[in-house]
Design a protein that fits this description.
Layout lengths: L16 H7 L2 H4 L3 H17 L5 H19 L12 H13 L12 H37 L4 E6 L2 E7 H26 L1 E2 L15 H7 L4 E2 L3 H6 L2 H27 L7 E2 L18 H12 L6 H21 L1 E2 L1 H6 L7 H10 L4 H18 L8 H5 L15 H6 L10 H19 L2
Parallel strand pairs: 3-4
Antiparallel strand pairs: 1-2, 5-6
Length: 441
């Protein structure tokens, strides 16, 4: 009956069935059953503290809510007509279990402050899971970078070979993106950690609920200071969605690189069979479908509006990314073979700079050297000293030291060019034990 609804007393006629269906959000917000129960139990204790519930009534409510939560966990909770959302469903079931004390639970509380509280509680716990996934991926990358530090490869700009780099330096460029994502998440959690419960529908709670104590019982750091703002606030969801979009873009970027590097044209890496698929027509094909999905889903997170959908998609591609990166094989020989001496043209310019030549002039001379090698169809290191001197008298016998890829890589000593092992060692020592415990590394 209509008067059984939380708001039904004012209405004489039943809700239109189409509106009833459209208005029901239980299919989505049932995922917050635990948070709704936790918030209700804490609120029942707060009501007992101000004598609006007896100790026995508060105990009955909490015990009943434990049964409600157990039914949700075991998948035996029966949804009935009229259960508009997780809040009404839980309260209806609580009344079935314990009777009239359940009708006292909602005093001073509204679904307006309930739903914001539930969403914040859900995000607080689940964003920690996403952060664990990020940290797990960072550790996988860091371990690979440490173990495969000897691998050299071309670095690319505009998909053109640019300068020789270490595979480890390339890998850690992605680790830095994910570390920044983890740091940003900490800032978002500060905003989420402000409790709105006790704001009522709009004007506040008239029963002098101890909101600070209530916040502490639910592990919030602070309480909202304006009830009207509190119940209308969804900024924290927008922040989460933007953050998820950033992580998705970073995952998509990594996947795009790996798709290219795993192709026959490159063969720098081989994706493990467990993260690859084949072709229904061409038997020779090894398709990096794990990376295709990461790239597609990651990029598609941009502009998502649904909190649960965004979380699910991001969690799924984080797990697949971690598995793909952990199991791939680096083909060191192919990486090394892709290095070519024209990639050392910048080093030629730097060589001349060290001889006192202004950089713009040195850059022009290096370009002339490259053009001459192309004209003669040889590598730039095959040009004789006499041929080089035709472009600049500053060339001497020590130019031979430039034709070394490892020397080229090791010349970059400034912070940011060479990976600073101290930072990652410190990060590893602070986090590794905790991450292993939680991520089963």
């Amino acid at each position: 009956m209509e008067h059984d609804k939380l708001w039904g007393g004012r209405f004489a006629d039943s809700t239109n069935s189409s509106l009833e269906k459209l208005n029901c959000s239980l299919g989505l917000d049932k995922r917050m059953f635990k948070e709704d129960v936790d918030g209700s139990k804490a609120y029942a204790k707060a009501l007992n503290n101000i004598k609006l519930l007896t100790l026995e009534e508060a105990k009955q409510i909490c015990d009943g809510l434990d049964i409600v939560q157990k039914e949700w966990k075991e998948g035996i909770f029966v949804i009935k007509d009229g259960d508009e959302d997780i809040h009404t469903a839980n309260e209806r079931r609580l009344k079935e279990l314990i009777g009239s004390p359940a009708t006292k639970l909602h005093v001073g509380r509204s679904r307006n402050d309930q739903v914001v509280t539930d969403m914040k509680l859900w995000l607080k716990s689940n964003l920690e899971i996403l952060d664990l996934g990020l940290r797990n991926l960072i550790f996988i990358i860091l371990n690979r970078a440490t173990n495969e530090i000897e691998v050299m490869m071309p670095g690319y700009t505009h998909l053109q070979r640019a300068q020789p780099v270490r595979w480890s330096h390339y890998l850690l460029s992605h680790a830095w993106n994910f570390k920044n994502d983890s740091d940003r998440l900490g800032e978002i959690l500060k905003h989420i950690n402000v409790m709105p419960l006790g704001s009522g529908a709009l004007a506040g709670n008239p029963f002098n609920i101890d909101r600070i104590k209530l916040a502490q019982s639910l592990s919030f750091d602070e309480i909202t200071q304006n009830s009207m703002q509190a119940v209308s606030d969804r900024d924290f969801i927008a922040e989460f969605l933007f953050w998820a979009s950033m992580v998705g873009i970073h995952l998509s970027r990594l996947a795009e690189d790996f798709i290219i590097y795993s192709s026959k044209e490159f063969e720098f890496i081989t994706i493990d069979d467990s993260y690859s698929t084949g072709s229904s027509l061409m038997p020779q094909k090894r398709n990096p479908d794990s990376l295709e999905l990461i790239r597609g889903i990651g990029g598609g997170l941009f502009g998502q509006e649904a909190m649960f959908t965004t979380f699910d998609k991001l969690m799924s591609i984080l797990e697949v990314t971690a598995g793909t990166v952990k199991t791939l094989k680096v083909n060191q020989g192919r990486c090394r073979a892709a290095l070519s001496f024209e990639m050392l043209a910048t080093d030629v310019a730097y060589y001349l700079v060290r001889k006192g030549v202004p950089f713009r002039q040195a850059h022009a001379v290096a370009g002339q050297v490259v053009a001459e090698a192309e004209k003669k169809e040889v590598n730039i290191n095959d040009l004789t000293l006499e041929e080089l001197k035709a472009f600049s008298p500053h060339f001497s016998i020590d130019i031979g030291k430039v034709w070394n890829f490892e020397n080229s890589i090791e010349q970059y000593q400034a912070i940011g060019a060479r990976q600073n092992p101290v930072f990652w060692d410190r990060w590893r020592s602070l986090e590794l034990g905790w991450a292993k415990m939680n991520c089963n590394l």
